[in-house]
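During the second year of the project, the team shifted from modelling isolated chains to modelling whole assemblies. The rationale, set out in the original proposal, was that interfaces cannot be judged from single-chain predictions alone. As a representative example for this report, we include one of the complexes processed in the last quarter. Its constituent sequences, exactly as entered into the pipeline, are reproduced here:
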Amino acid sequence: MNGSYEDAGVSLAAAESVVDRLRAAADSTRTPAVVGGLGGFAGLYALDDERLLAASTDGVGTKLVLARRAGRLRDAGRDLAAHCVNDVLTTGAEPLFFLDYVAAHRLDLEQVAELVEGAADVCREAGCALLGGETAEMPGVYRDEELDFAGTCVGVVARGALVDGSRVADGDVVLGLPSSGLHANGFTLVRRLVGDGEFDPDLLLAPTRLYLDDVRRLRAACDVRALAHVTGGGIPGNVARVLPSGLGAVVDPEAWERPPVFRWLAGQGVAEDEQRRVFNLGIGYCAIVPPGDASNTVLLADAGARVIGRVEEGVEGVVFADAG
Amino acid sequence: MNGSYEDAGVSLAAAESVVDRLRAAADSTRTPAVVGGLGGFAGLYALDDERLLAASTDGVGTKLVLARRAGRLRDAGRDLAAHCVNDVLTTGAEPLFFLDYVAAHRLDLEQVAELVEGAADVCREAGCALLGGETAEMPGVYRDEELDFAGTCVGVVARGALVDGSRVADGDVVLGLPSSGLHANGFTLVRRLVGDGEFDPDLLLAPTRLYLDDVRRLRAACDVRALAHVTGGGIPGNVARVLPSGLGAVVDPEAWERPPVFRWLAGQGVAEDEQRRVFNLGIGYCAIVPPGDASNTVLLADAGARVIGRVEEGVEGVVFADAG
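Output from the structure prediction step:
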């Protein structure tokens, strides 16, 4: 259960204390088939001795508001499905199916269809069946023009192919895969910057990249020991979720070129610190591999990956190399 | 993808046309593993030659608004999990795990915890693991005090145990299982009746009954050929979803005693016709069995079931015996 950030009315402290109580509720339902705890990018459920199901539920968040204003709900649909599939991928699973949930004050046919069609676009690319969904009109719950879009992806992974971070070792290399832009994170802050004014939808709303092919290519070529989807919490918050205790990582913020939207954020007065804590900075997915596997730069380039950091014993969490 | 009803601002026509476009989107993602089409209570996905996964996403709907006003969000959490598990059960599946999604203008720790704890109560009873979830603050999307709660349940069924209505035959018997009250359907209308006034939460908000044990007992004793979860659309709308083409059913509306809330609805001026179209009338789940299996009344009583109707060739859809 991801927390969110404190800007623009999103309270992180409350989210943290909710997590403890939610964790206790979830623990009370635990069965022997549940593998690992909450806090991963996807929940794991042992189907039998050989296979695990991986499942993740997520929403598009307030990116939807700007997408609706810009007439880009189909892209927001892509965001949702890609986000959920990317979460499931972190376990090494292949996506099987996806279900969605659209709710609004009043359902607008065109809007609902665009969202679901966008999600279906990504599902087709991912070989993931759109298996069902729910549409709900809830007058009085949503604001007049607003709607929400959430979804659940379920995938499957052989036990032997499970990626869970447990084998990550001191000296391993952090690879970064480029994002298309902001993906679907940090939009409560972006909306505050945009206000009621005009904005460039190409700059701000580029849909979330699907990392399925990248991850497949990387896994075919490397011993991928951990995978992190860079969402709310940025690179440090999300890479930290897959490191074994006792290990941290140092990331070089100069190791890649940031997409133009991050210059726009800086121009709007969003400090570098804040950008690092909230946004993906241009790296939407990370893989941790042994140093030997990171030396084949041709192979990495083919998978779209570049070295952005290193796992280090004695480092607390994930820090940037230039941090004071 | 369930539509909803036309009262109190919920437009059925729009929901119907959405369904066509959503169906096309889903069809475009179809893989050989998908079994059946949209429109069932749960989507089916072939995991291998022996087993199918069944999955359903749903929300609590506007019952949440009254639950919040009455301080009964834990019951609303029960509603959501029971609703999703009941949907999955219609395929003959056993529930495996559940994921939830809570979103609000601003997350209230206590409210989120109550919702998830209520869902966890039902998950424990169902042996269904609460595997994960998402909490989202979406300022500007939800009204100030409002929130939404949706969830997804995934279950598994052996191919040989699949319940899909295909074997339903002329002369089969419709069994009804009692509801606890309104469950989570028809609340946009109920809210209009209640307005801003006081209401009796015991009467209106009794949480959705979980039918897992009932269905298990019935299946152990009978050849259960179809299972229908009575949600929006009432008994006719939902039983019709599991009948093979060419078969209808006649239901005797006097075959069971309705819970007190239906007298309350009548007293509020909700016509019998409207009640039949929107509400469960006291029957929250239906099973269709061969006539011989319905003759063992002791056995049926043990499963909490009673005969409420009969499958008939030449009947169009599902009608009430006293219908003009």
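Chain A has two domains: 31-161, 173-320. The radius of gyration of chain A is 19 Å.
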